[in-house]
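Contributing new records

If you add data, match the layout below exactly. Sequence lines come first and carry their own label; structure lines follow with theirs. Keep one chain per record. Anything else will be rejected by the validation script.
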Amino acid sequence: MVLFKRFLSILLLLQLIMTLRNDGNHKLLARHSLLWKPERPIARSAAEPFIDQQENKSFNNKSTYVIPSLSVINQMAAGVPENIKAEFKKTILVGCQHNLETTVTLYKAIKSLGIKRIYSVGKCYSDSEVIKQAMVQEGICLMPSNRPAMVGGFQEICRQDIRAMWNRCSQELDDDIETIIVLDDGGRCLEEMPPYIRLSYRVAGIEQTRGGLYSPVLKELPFPVIEVTSSALKREIEPTFVAKAVINELEKKMGSMISLFHFNKKTVIGIIGNGAIGSAVARYFLSLGYTVAVYDESPDTFRNISPKSKLYRMPSREAVISNSYCIFGCTGKDALRDIPLLDVVSKDTIFISCTSEDREFLSILQSIHKKSIVVSDPLDDIICVSENGSKIVFVRGGYPFNFNGKPWSVPANEIEPIRGALLGAVIQGVICAKKPVGDGLTINQTERLMLDPSIQQFVVEQWRKTPAAAQHSVELLDCFNDSEWIKKSSGGTYSHQAAVKRCFSLQEKEKKNDSTTSLSERPLLRSRL
């Protein structure tokens, strides 16, 4: 009994020493589940789950999940001629994509074209378990998307996952494989491609994120890369729906934020980045009567602000931090770079990311890791303490808060045109893929190709028949009738490919439909009209 009491006393003493040490350093880090469990106290055990899975149980308990069928995708796949399908049979696809429902829709369409095999890796913060099961059932070679062991460590763990995927792909390359399509989200899948594969096969890359195009490695690749991210289709259509998804998630969480963080109409909301997403977040809070402080390096983003609004344009990021209680990162890059946040923050402050991966607050997350602060799960909320004792909260570890384990982030009918753009890019890639010339004389250089205007035109023309398209103006959708406007509004070099145009020419589709309608059917069609 005496020994037990001594042992207990030693444990209590050690706990007290560790607490004093942490408090003295002002680097205390705790794990919490703030927005997703508002009924509990703010302080809680690190072992508790981050996301309240209650709203997702209805999905994850299903043995099968119904993957949405999208009309645009179906029409695109149905129009591919047999000679191009023959090329798909000698092709594999290696991709990095979010494990969400329309990714399965996209992969199923690619499989229907006869592709030999699909390798894919997801991103740990957006994974849906039920969708991962659906991918495996569809015969996708799905690789694990592991969680980082430290805060700010997503990029490295993602690279490790992609290297493992390429290693498996390299071991399973059959003799009849001629073409490899790389469907990338972030540039790393292209960067990590083994040099032997780059030089030995017909290859085409596809990049769908702006950040991926900034990679210096992409400038040295000896094959074409199709810029979906800079296409008019993605730039003009997608932001509206991504911003809407962020706002929908905000609406669900506002009650929790008001309860946990004591929000009221005097709470000043800060926004760094006033693009499509940032301005949508600003409009949402202004509509609720909040005061909003915004910084963006481009003055053009403030042109359509109402002079009567309670929106204040700040001269710097530091001014946003100083004048706001809850700050939304909407830049798509490191919004806090070169800011000594632990010294700057003088009051309790909440940071929420609205963009991809953990890059929005990456520099401060990495500095937390360098200070040897141990965390239980980098995807949980993080609370650290500034030099003056103020709490700094990074909701969901700095990852986008609108990903929460559900099978979708943006509804299928709204993200449909972007999935159509990717399917079109895969078809374009199979047609324009190149094997580097190994004659010792030819200079092999990267081609940065435009997503073919005929693809963009076809997708928008078909999608605008759906109710979701009504959320965009008729004037904008009409712009896609003009191939010259598409070229001027898209990045990459336009390269005329007759085979691509034949696949997606609307005039050709109409002629084909007319020719496949039998004489006996035509009176019936006219009578129905």
